[in-house]
Design the sequence.
């Protein structure tokens, strides 16, 4: 073993690891930042050291009040609070992030879904065909009535995903919370991709639950631990805002996503198109928290534009610090 390899191993063992629960969050920093001018050795040595740096990475979207993307923000135009305090340092800030995607389609097949079901299936298949890049992005399909069922595991093959969607048909009860919990904890947490990825859940449902053993707070915690963003497309075609619609909005807002409430079938296509555009029109921010403690506690994140009241920023609202125990 050469002296450089020994040095890297010594450094890696001496610096405490921050993200026991979320390695991708830390490793993303190695992709966003250029190597120091005096860096030496192979490219594999650099992430080994940097993976132990205390940093948080957040992907967020900025729009005006009309929903138009604002793609010219600068880092000094942002106000960031981690656990109520400004970061000790901002490590990097980039726009239009192009991270590999890991997408979970969670589709309601309960008896409460509407006549738009076939159209929603077709729209989801079209979305996969337009968004997924071969050998880069992957997706899976979960259907749920009274229980969640994985109809297609992770793949970049749109034909297989299409088959996983088409085999679905309306059935019995509705376990929305259990299905989301399964998608977040079983499929999107601790992905061994060897690189940072963007975790997305697209939920198509009316939001009404009558079968789950999982609670709403547990679903939100699962999504936070998986660092998954939830985009929800409501199947409620009534003229009123239902309890389920309010749930979909809450889930999206808590995770930095967005909820859509299509009034007609054509609006379902627009919802998928908006999600597609948003995934490729975002910012990636990396910072070092102030007064960080590895205590396993939930830490809030607040990102705002300093001097522009018309700029709306959507990001996940926090993360769980690792525990030193």
Sequence:
């Amino acid at each position: 073993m050469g002296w450089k390899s020994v040095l890297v191993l010594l450094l890696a063992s001496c610096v405490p690891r921050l993200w026991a629960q979320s390695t991708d969050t830390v490793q993303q920093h190695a992709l966003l930042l250029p190597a120091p001018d005096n860096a030496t050795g192979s490219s594999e040595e650099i992430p080994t050291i940097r993976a132990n740096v205390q940093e948080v990475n957040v992907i967020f979207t900025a729009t005006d009040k009309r929903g138009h993307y604002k793609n010219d923000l600068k880092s000094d135009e942002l106000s960031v609070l981690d656990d109520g305090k400004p970061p000790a340092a901002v490590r990097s800030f980039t726009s239009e992030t192009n991270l590999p995607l890991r997408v979970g389609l969670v589709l309601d097949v309960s008896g409460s879904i509407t006549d738009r079901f076939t159209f929603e299936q077709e729209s989801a298949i079209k979305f996969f065909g337009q968004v997924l890049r071969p050998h880069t992005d992957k997706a899976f399909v979960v259907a749920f009535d009274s229980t969640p069922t994985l109809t297609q595991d992770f793949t970049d093959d749109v034909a297989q995903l299409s088959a996983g969607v088409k085999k679905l048909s309306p059935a019995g009860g509705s376990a929305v919370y259990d299905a989301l919990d399964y998608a977040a904890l079983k499929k999107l947490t601790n992905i061994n991709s060897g690189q940072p990825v963007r975790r997305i859940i697209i939920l198509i449902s009316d939001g009404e639950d009558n079968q789950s053993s999982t609670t709403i707070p547990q679903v939100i915690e699962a999504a936070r631990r998986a660092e998954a963003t939830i985009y929800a497309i409501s199947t409620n075609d009534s003229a009123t805002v239902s309890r389920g619609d309010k749930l979909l909005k809450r889930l999206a807002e808590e995770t930095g996503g967005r909820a859509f409430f299509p009034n007609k079938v054509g609006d379902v296509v627009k919802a998928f198109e908006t999600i597609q555009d948003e995934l490729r029109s975002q910012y990636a921010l990396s910072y070092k928290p102030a007064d960080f403690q590895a205590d396993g506690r939930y830490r809030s994140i607040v990102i705002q534009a300093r001097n522009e009241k018309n700029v709306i920023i959507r990001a996940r609202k926090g993360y769980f610090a690792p525990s030193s125990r």
